[in-house]
Amino acid sequence: MIIAIDGPAAAGKGTIAERLAAHYRLPYLDTGLLYRAIGKVMAEQGLDPDDAVGAGRVAAALDLTHLADPQLRGREAGELASRVAVHKPVRDALLKFQRDFAAQPEGAVLDGRDIGTTICPQADVKIFVTASPEVRARRRTDELNAKGRAVDYERILVEIRERDARDSGRTAAPLRKAADAHLLDTSDKAIETAFRAAVDIVERARAERA
Ligand code: DC
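^ thats the input. predicted complex w/ 2'-deoxycytidine-5'-monophosphate below
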């Protein structure tokens, strides 16, 4: 079974995807880490993340098996990831790795922005996880504050809106809900409730296919 989870930053898709993978005992790929890794390498090498050709070259040479670096999960890496992700050569270089991951015998859970539309259009279940920008900014602010980092809600809200605009506005595989994806709005849901709703969606999709 292939489960495709897409949605904007900080909507809860990573947590839902990870928990679905554990629940169904499926391998899990957080595809955002691929773009984050490219952004990080470019920063380390002093390359311009807005240079499509350079970014494509880094993407093609990237060792995609080392994605555990905790630095990749930071805010700066996320911003850089969103910038390198607009380039078609980058997306092309990452396509095969993601499709091969999804093609494992037991299936897989992948989360990102274009899984249901581009990477796995044939996925058995597609879920588009979203929440209002205000709710996402509040969650992100609380999360960072809890880690001891003093961040301003208004600043985070601006960043979230900018990231949404860039991820949805690009021409190469933009963030979009696939026509056959189930919408899961987590704005007024605690994570446990959102996870349960995701399991219900998967179970309904399986029953329909059986
Ligand atoms: O999911 P994330 O926050 O780790 O993603 C970081 C950025 O990477 C996101 O803003 C856009 C890009 N991305 C993408 O374009 N396609 C994906 N499948 C996953 C992430």
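The pocket of 2'-deoxycytidine-5'-monophosphate is lined by residues 9, 31-32, 35-36, 78, 81-82, 85, 112-114, 163, 167 (CB under 6 Å).
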